[in-house]
Design goal:
The structure holds two protein chains of two kinds.
Chain A lengths: L1 H34 L14 E7 L7 H16 L3 E7 L2 H13 L6 E4 L3 H8 L7 H4 L4 H4 L9 E2 L2 E2 L2 E2 L2 E9 H7 L7 H13 L3 E4 L6 H15 L3 H6 L8 H15 L12 H9 L3 E7 L3 H5 L7 E4 L13 E5 L2 E4 L6 H21 L21 H12 L3 E3 L1 H4 L2 H14 L6 H14 L2
Parallel strand pairs in A: 1-2, 8-9, 11-13
Antiparallel strand pairs in A: 3-12, 4-5, 6-12, 7-9, 7-10, 7-11
Helix pairs in contact in A: 2-14, 9-11, 9-17, 11-18, 17-18
Chain B lengths: L7 H29 L2 E3 L5 E3 L3 H8 L4 H32 L4 H12 L2 H12 L7 H8 L16 H26 L3 H9 L4 H12 L1 H16 L3 H6 L11 H11 L3 H33 L1
Antiparallel strand pairs in B: 1-2
Helix pairs in contact in B: 1-13, 3-7, 3-10, 4-7, 10-13, 12-13
The chains are: A alpha/beta, B mainly alpha.
């Protein structure tokens, strides 16, 4: 009998411990709320300790932004001993997934990162993000941003995120391989096909692409569409002025298929993910690489550094203006509307963004920022390729956003699959246009 | 039934923690998913109740869904067809190898490798010859260049390439299970059989196979459920591409829930998957119960 009671006691004790452990977590959250009442980022000795969670997409120590974030956070913590910034660094895809899961239970971290325009609209409409208009006015932060860039992060006159960059789509090319194949930088699409032919004859793989991550092919395709139809095609579809079966769209599909059929891309392109595709170019296995200018930093630290130049995507069938680029406003830092330390978080993000361009410039990561950068790039030791990219930025006369930044996710997925299919099957271009229209209508 | 020396309350107390965990981590999510499956919801914002509309679209208006179901079921069939082979290997190991432990462990090795590593490894093996793919390189080296394929990017064979990797990885797993099962069969049965004139394969057919049925069943259920839930391998090697050619039920669910932001629709697919798993388990149990009765 006694033993039985003992067993019960032990079990009860075990359970109690388990429950207490569960309770402890809840308790912690409670104390956080209390601390949240401390105001401002004041350095007063009596200010209560608070923790701000900073979810970001820079886990890779070889990337300049990883170091920049760490440095600014350390500086801020030194000046504000009561504030602890907790970094939650994840790969882009993981971060996207985690944020969506967190958003479903309305537990967005104090600072997180979202993609511009249509991709962040859901979060804004669900009231998960805090408007940042007030903190933009402080310390002249608003003036540091390039003109018009904040529009991509604004809804109904409120700014909801601050971009970490502003990039354009361009073609990187390996000068050595071009020389060996006797190829010149193409200015028309026909010349580009000719370059592909020359490179192939020499035994080179002309272009690298990481088409397992479907957005890569879409980004290139959209640049062709930008040439054949001019900027704003997708907006016109959304406004009901055009459909995907528009001849200019079919023309772009034709051009894209011509490039695939000419054997421009590496074999088995659809099984290469983004990194593997980029590595082909970075290790000198392919001669060209179409990507956003954010790739510049990575190419600079690779083995082909010094042999690489850049050019604008050429005209297609004599149409389009090469100075219109695929525009890729970067991921934006956003603040949770339900943050327990809204004021402190805003104060930190303001400090962070004001210092961001300065630190980025020092870390040689200032190519393709969304903010004005002061300083002499050449003197600071930026590479010739970086200087070339910076020069292209000066030529930008507008352009278009990526497909998934304009259309809703359902339509975007239909589009991405449809383009990926072109890498493995030759399809009537009119059929591709029809597929797009069907995907658009069913996801309206 | 009072064979146990502890009271029912004690049993209940001991079961409680696990039961609670099970309810919280398995049962509640299924119920919640079932409810989300009835919603038009992007996972973040407002949701509207639309009844069985998601299931209607799923069954009648989704060009990706049924092919992905077909691929998943085909995978299940292949996985189950692998079990007799595993059993055969186990019998051979048991009969002809003096110290089989080393061989069993080596067959088991791929199982303990992470799926991501196995996936990357086979991706490299499957690569086109121009990218240094080993398989195609080998085919060319032995004079069969017309047999080379782009194994993972040709829509008509990509799925079979994936099946093969999964079967390769799990052969050792099932061999180990069967091997353990066979070793548990008492040796005197075989001795008695020998006196009656049954040796070799005959003894296997009349003793090993019937005695091993419960273990065989475990492998079949594991293989079936495992293949229905196949996700990681596909994600690592092809991510369902090119153009949905290797999408299975779970990757389709993932795409819908998280990429197309149709969380409600994705939940509907999840519920379909749960139902298939339940039905399949019931059918498999039924078949094996009859087999059991026949032999015992």
């Amino acid at each position: 009998m006694k033993r039985k009671r003992l067993a019960k006691l032990v079990t009860a004790a075990l359970l109690a411990v388990m429950l207490a452990a569960c309770g402890a977590n809840g308790g912690n959250k409670g104390t956080n709320t209390d601390a949240g009442k401390a105001t401002g980022g004041s350095t007063g000795p009596k200010a209560e300790k608070i923790t701000i969670t900073f979810q970001n997409i820079f886990p890779d120590p070889t990337e300049p932004k990883h170091g920049i974030i760490k440095k600014i956070v350390e500086q801020y913590e030194k000046e504000h001993p009561n504030v602890k910034i907790e970094l939650d660094s994840l790969n882009t895809d993981q971060q996207k997934l985690k944020l969506k899961t967190q958003a479903a239970s309305r537990e967005v971290p104090d600072i997180t990162m979202v993609n511009p325009a249509a991709q962040m609209q859901h979060f804004v409409e669900a009231g998960l993000l805090a408007p940042l208009n007030d903190m933009l006015g402080e310390n002249g932060l608003k003036e540091t941003f390039q003109e018009g860039i904040l529009d991509f992060y604004s809804f109904d006159g409120n700014v909801y995120a601050l971009p970490d960059g502003n990039n354009i789509g361009l073609v990187y090319y390996n000068k050595e391989m071009f020389e060996q194949a006797g190829a010149q930088v193409p200015t028309t699409f026909e010349e580009m096909l000719d370059v592909v032919k020359k490179l192939k004859e020499k035994g080179f793989t002309p272009m690298a692409i990481g088409e397992k991550d479907t957005w890569t092919g879409s980004f290139l395709f959209m640049n062709m569409l930008l040439r054949t139809s001019g900027p704003g095609f997708l907006q016109k579809v959304l406004d009901g002025e055009k459909t995907f079966e528009d001849p200019t769209f079919v023309e772009a599909v034709d051009a894209f298929q011509a490039l695939v059929q000419a054997g421009a891309f590496q074999e088995g392109a659809t099984s290469f993910d983004y990194n593997a595709g980029e590595n082909l170019f970075k290790t000198g296995q392919t001669a060209m690489y179409y990507m956003g200018s954010w790739a510049t930093g990575g190419i600079e630290t690779s083995s082909v550094n010094g042999k690489v130049g850049v050019f604008k995507f050429p005209t297609v069938n004599g149409k389009g203006d090469p100075n219109e680029f695929m525009l890729a406003p970067g991921s934006g830092f956003a603040i949770s509307a339900n943050s327990k330390h809204l004021e402190e978080t805003k104060d930190f993000l303001n400090y962070f963004m004001v210092n961001f361009p300065k630190e980025a410039f020092l870390a040689k990561g200032a190519v393709g920022l969304g903010q004005h950068v002061e300083g002499d790039f050449k003197a600071a030791g930026y590479s010739d390729m970086a200087m070339e990219v910076l020069a292209l930025f000066k030529d930008v006369k507008g352009g278009d956003l990526a497909f998934d930044n304009t259309m809703n996710p359902g339509t975007a997925q239909g589009h991405l699959t449809s383009i990926q299919n072109l890498f493995v099957n030759k399809i009537d271009s009119a059929e591709v246009a029809k597929e797009h229209q069907a995907a658009y209508v069913s996801n309206k | 039934m009072n064979v146990l020396k502890v009271s029912k309350t004690t049993i209940a107390l001991f079961v409680l923690p696990c039961l609670l965990l099970y309810i919280c981590l398995v049962f509640v999510p299924i119920v919640v998913s079932a409810y989300s499956g009835l919603l038009d919801w992007n996972g973040i914002g407002e949701s509207t109740f639309i009844g069985l509309e998601n299931f209607k679209t799923l069954f009648f208006n989704d060009s990706v869904f049924w092919p992905s179901v077909r691929r998943t079921l085909l995978f299940a069939v292949f996985s189950m067809a692998e079990i007799p082979i595993a059993l055969f290997v186990a019998i051979l190991l048991n009969r002809f190898v003096k110290r089989p432990n080393f061989l069993v462990s080596s067959y088991f090795l791929p199982v303990i490798l992470s799926v991501v590593i196995v996936g990357q490894l086979w991706k490299t093996i499957y690569n086109p010859a121009s990218m240094g793919g080993m398989l195609n390189g080998l085919l060319i080296a032995v004079g069969l260049p017309e047999w080379t394929r782009s194994w993972l990017t040709d829509p008509s064979i990509a799925m079979y390439s994936l099946y093969f990797v999964a079967l390769w990885q799990y052969l050792g797993y099932h061999t180990l299970i069967q091997f353990t099962g066979i070793q548990a069969i008492p040796a005197d049965l075989y001795e008695a059989a020998r006196i009656d004139g049954a040796e070799g394969l005959k003894a296997d057919w009349h003793i090993t196979f019937p005695m091993n049925i419960p273990i065989f069943k475990i492998s079949i259920v594991l293989a079936f459920i495992g293949s229905l839930q196949a996700f990681d391998m596909v994600m690592v090697m092809t991510a369902g591409g090119p153009a949905h050619a290797t999408d299975v039920i779970s990757t389709h669910m993932y795409n819908m829930s998280f990429l197309s932001m149709k969380y409600g629709y994705g939940s509907a697919i999840a519920i379909f998957l749960v139902c298939i798993c339940l039905i399949a388990t019931v059918i498999i149990n039924f078949i094996f119960n009859r087999l059991d009765r026949k032999y015992t």
